[in-house]
Amino acid sequence: MEKSEFSQNHKLMHFSVGSLIKKNGKILMINRRAPPYGWACLAGHIDIGETPEQAIKREVKEESNLIVKNQKLLFEEFLDWNFCSKGANVHYWYLFECDFEGELKHNERESLETGWKTVDDLKRIELEPVWEYWLNKLKII
Q1: How far is residue 52 from each of residues 23, 57, 59, measured CA to CA in Å?
Q2: 39 and 32 Cβ atoms separated by less than 8 Å
Q3: What is the CATH classification number for the domain harbouring 21?
Q4: What residues make up the domain containing 62?
Q5: Which of 8, 12, 38, 54 reaches 20 to 30 Å from 116, CA-CA?
Q6: Triad 60, 56, 29: Cα angle to 5°
C-alpha cells in the first residue's frame, strides 16, 4: 500500500484495519476516548508504507499491548459512510480475526475502558457505528 489516504469522488478516504480478537467466548473491546464514540474492537488507520497485516499488528500492540501471532482476513470493504476524527467519511477496511499472545494492558490514551465482552454484553452497550455494522455482518449480534 503506497498511501494511507486518497480522494474518492472528491471525498477524503482512509485505509483502516480492524481486529476481531476472541478469548473464552468473549470479544476484546475498548470504549473509545475519541470520536466516533462507543465500544469498538481494536482498530486504526494504515500508515503510509504499511501493509494491512503490518498495521493490524501495530494497532493491536498500541491499543492493548497484545502481540498478534496470526491474522486471518475475514473481508475487506469500502464504506462511504464511516466517519473518523481525522476528517474522513470514507474508509476502505480490512477486517482480521487475530490470534494473540501477551498480557492485556489498558491504554488510557486510546480508550476509557478495555474489556472482554460477551455477545449479551454487546447487545446492551453502545457500539461505535462501524463496529455495530461489522458485528451484525458477522452475525455475532
Answers
A1: 23, 9, 10
A2: yes
A3: 3.90.79.10
A4: 5-137
A5: 54
A6: 40
For the chain, the farthest-separated pair of C-alpha atoms sits apart, in whole angstroms, at: 44
Can you spell out the DSSP letters for 46-111? PPTT--HHHHHHHHHHHHHS-EEEEEEEEEEEEESS---TTS-SEEEEEEEEEEEES-----TTTE
Amino acid of residue 93: W
Task: Name which of 65, 67, 64, 79 is nearest 28 in CA terms.
Answer: 64
Grid coordinates of 126? 453502545
8 Å CB contact between 60 and 102? no
Q: What is the pLDDT of residue 87?
A: 86
Supply the DSSP symbol for 85: T
Q: Is 9 a residue whose pLDDT tops 80?
A: no
Q: What letter represents residue 57's amino acid?
A: K
DSSP assignment letter at 127: B
Question: Grid cell 455475532 — which residue?
Answer: 140
pLDDT (tens digit, 9 = 90+) per residue, 106-127?
Answer: 999 999 999 999 999 999 999 9
Q: How many domains does the chain have?
A: 1
Regarding pTM above 0.70, the answer is yes
